């Protein structure tokens, strides 16, 4: 929608700028609504209802129609149109219109599923972010079922024929193999040999967690609380284009200030250089004004603290975190300003959300696409717990250190690995896998060599 914002500034007087900007924002929402509606309409016109069975019964025309609909559902534009409405009835309604069977009070996230007709979601189901659900293989379509009260958390992948029992939990990065069944009240995670790993049966929990879960369930059953929570999140989602319009500031400045095209070009380039810093500044201001300092605690769902955390999640995902400066000392300084404890000479990439709960020692390396978010969700309770990365430790690309976990001094976590909640990787050890386990490799303490020896013999 950048051209719309710029055009409205170029063709009107200054007095009309606020109204035209508002019109551009409304137009962006209309565009997103039209995209979602047309996707639903084309799904039913081209494919209709998809039922379990063999694909061989369908000819080339039918397969092409399926490909078109699957492409529409996987488009970034479709997902971006709905991402602001996570945990609301709006997102649930869209998937119901696409053919999914969804129970009441399900906490929906923006899942990826190319055949929603084969998706059955029970009452009080809870999703994490970036969940992928596959309901077909090369030969047939198979349904995926998640029963009442089940939890499927961040980055899980569910293959055809999977059944998740009542109140069962699939932890972060779980791979549910084709046809795998998860019994009720079990906790499972990761991927070993193509199968999710069973951790344990769910216990009753501490009296405090039981009381919080009961409190969250009472709010969940309250029509007033449920309605207010949904209305608040929907209004926040409607404001999302206002935050995103910051990205159009370089062109806006060029149109408003420049007297000719040469000036416009110079102003645009200069503004583009400052854009990331402006986004980081806004993120800094909003974090400290709206949230303050994150602290270790548990928060029941559907209260004011949960609502503010959801708003912060949307804002944090909208703005850049100095993305162009990851790996530099400038990004380390940004993390410190946001509340994280960061040591000297670090090379940091990855993503974090609860900055104040992240502690990083000296000369730490965090690779691309690593996840250091300091929260987890279980049974309608948001738990915020610190993460500690010891000095000289390393997280390789797309690895995860879960809340409450710690990397000791000099520890290494290989790529695509995950340290579970509450675990500690001992100093100088190298762990790998999902869930991560010790390897036979030991890391030499290179940093312990005196500087004089590390330089070798002098040459004269």
UniProtKB/TrEMBL annotation:
This is Uncharacterized protein. It comes from Prorocentrum cordatum. It comes from the Eukaryota.
């Amino acid at each position: 929608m950048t051209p719309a914002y710029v055009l409205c500034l170029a063709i009107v007087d200054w007095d009309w700028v606020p109204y035209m900007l508002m019109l551009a924002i409304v137009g962006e929402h209309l565009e997103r609504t039209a995209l979602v509606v047309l996707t639903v309409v084309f799904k039913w016109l081209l494919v209709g209802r998809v039922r379990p069975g063999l694909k061989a019964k369908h000819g080339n025309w039918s397969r092409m129609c399926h490909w078109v609909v699957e492409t529409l559902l996987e488009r970034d534009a479709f997902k971006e149109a709905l991402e602001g409405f996570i945990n609301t009835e709006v997102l649930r309604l869209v998937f119901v219109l696409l053919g999914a069977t969804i129970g009441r009070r399900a906490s929906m996230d923006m899942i990826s599923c190319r055949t929603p007709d084969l998706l059955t979601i029970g009452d009080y189901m809870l999703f994490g972010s970036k969940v992928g659900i596959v309901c077909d293989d090369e030969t047939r379509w198979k349904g995926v079922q998640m029963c009442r009260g089940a939890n499927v958390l961040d980055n899980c992948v569910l293959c055809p024929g999977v059944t998740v029992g009542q109140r069962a939990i699939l932890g972060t990065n779980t791979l549910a193999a084709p046809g795998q069944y998860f019994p009720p009240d079990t906790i499972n995670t990761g991927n070993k040999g193509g199968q999710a790993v069973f951790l344990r049966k769910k216990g009753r929990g501490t009296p405090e967690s039981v009381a919080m879960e009961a409190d969250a369930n009472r709010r969940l059953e309250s029509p007033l609380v449920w309605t207010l929570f949904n209305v608040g999140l929907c209004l926040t989602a409607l404001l999302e284009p206002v935050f995103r319009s910051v990205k159009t500031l370089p062109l806006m400045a060029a149109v408003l200030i420049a007297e000719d095209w040469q000036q416009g070009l110079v102003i645009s380039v200069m503004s583009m250089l400052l854009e990331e810093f402006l986004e980081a500044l806004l993120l800094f201001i909003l974090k400290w004004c709206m949230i303050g300092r994150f602290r270790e605690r548990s928060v029941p769902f559907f209260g004011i603290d949960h609502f503010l955390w959801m708003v912060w999640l949307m804002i944090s995902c909208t703005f850049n975190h100095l993305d162009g400066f990851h790996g530099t000392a400038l990004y380390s300084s940004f993390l410190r300003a946001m509340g994280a404890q960061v040591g000297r000479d670090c090379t940091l990439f990855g993503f974090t959300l609860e900055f104040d709960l992240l502690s990083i020692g000296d000369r730490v390396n965090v690779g691309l696409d690593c996840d250091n978010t300091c929260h987890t969700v279980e049974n309608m309770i948001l738990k915020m717990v610190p993460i500690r990365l010891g000095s000289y430790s390393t997280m390789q690309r797309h690895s995860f250190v879960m809340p409450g976990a710690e990397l000791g001094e000099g520890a290494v976590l290989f790529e695509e690995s995950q340290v579970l909640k509450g675990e500690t990787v001992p100093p100088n050890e190298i762990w790998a896998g999902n869930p991560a386990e010790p390897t036979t490799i030991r890391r030499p303490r290179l940093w312990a060599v005196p500087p004089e020896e590390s330089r070798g013999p002098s040459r004269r």
